[in-house]
Design brief:
The complex is a heterodimer of chains A (about 120) and B (about 110). Chain A is mainly β and about 120 residues long. Chain A contains no helices and eleven strands. In chain B, the strands form two sheets. In chain B, strands 2, 4, 5, 6, 9, 10 and 11 form a seven-stranded mixed sheet that branches. A four-stranded antiparallel sheet of chain B has the order 1-3-8-7, with no helix packed on it. Classes of the chains: A mainly beta (about 120), B mainly beta (about 110). The interface between A and B is medium-sized, with 22 and 24 residues.
């Protein structure tokens, strides 16, 4: 059973860079599937940030594309999110998630527990 | 981007009631749709993919249907543990997009 766990600073200053890591256990991120990030501002809905495939090829939400990087660390079986030039609008719970495949369906089957990141000086 | 619209935004129902949530896509997404349940303060849980296929371990009281632009999630007999917010999501094209959510409360 795959498990995902986010980690990183809970407080980031405006204009700085948000950096989070998702540690994966129970499955190698080099084997297959998509590995990505989703966020949820307090009291609001879910926003897909982006994902990478098992080779490191990435896809991003156009609304965030200029500020986002998702990259693997295969030696530690984890992947990371970097979001630059943050503002208060980036305050949210950040989730990492896996998209797996069944036929032509690529669907989210596993989520991390989420980590709250607050942007404030 | 494909817009996903859920209705109602909230509902209150009694234990044992049959509950139906609707999700509409702004364009044809075939059956590339998933449903998630989010309990208060918790991460979302994956319920259904392919519009109607239950994820492993999800009880059969949950069911999904639809294709094209209109989809439904049904809880056949609402129980107290089903309270939370339910989201639909399309995955036919990037960017992946979610519905705004339906908050389910118990009367």
């Amino acid at each position: 059973q795959v498990q995902l766990q986010e980690s990183g600073p809970g407080l980031v200053k405006p204009s700085e860079t948000l950096s989070l890591t998702c540690a994966v256990s129970g499955y190698s991120i080099r084997t297959a599937y998509y590995w990505g990030w989703i966020r949820q501002p307090p009291g609001q809905g879910l926003e897909w940030i982006g994902n990478m495939d098992h080779t490191g090829i990435t896809f991003f939400n156009p609304s965030l594309k200029s500020r986002v990087t998702i990259s693997p660390d295969t030696s530690k079986n984890q992947f990371s999110l970097r979001l630059t030039s943050v503002t208060a609008a980036d305050t949210a719970v950040y989730y990492c998630a896996r998209r797996m495949r069944d036929g032509y369906h690529w669907f989210i089957d596993s989520w991390g527990q989420g980590t709250l990141v607050t942007v404030s000086s | 981007d494909i817009q996903m619209t859920q209705s109602p935004s909230s509902l209150s129902a009694s234990v044992g009631d049959r509950v139906t949530i609707t999700c509409r896509a702004s364009q044809d997404i075939n059956n590339q749709l998933a449903w998630f349940q989010q309990k208060p303060g918790k991460a979302p849980k994956s319920l259904i993919y392919g519009a109607s296929t239950l994820q492993s371990g999800v009880p059969s009281k949950f069911s999904g249907s639809g294709s094209g632009t209109e989809f439904t999630l049904t809880i056949s007999s609402l129980q107290p543990e089903d309270l939370g917010t339910y989201f639909c999501q399309q995955y036919i094209s990037y960017p992946l997009t979610f519905g705004g959510g339906t908050k389910v409360e118990i009367k």
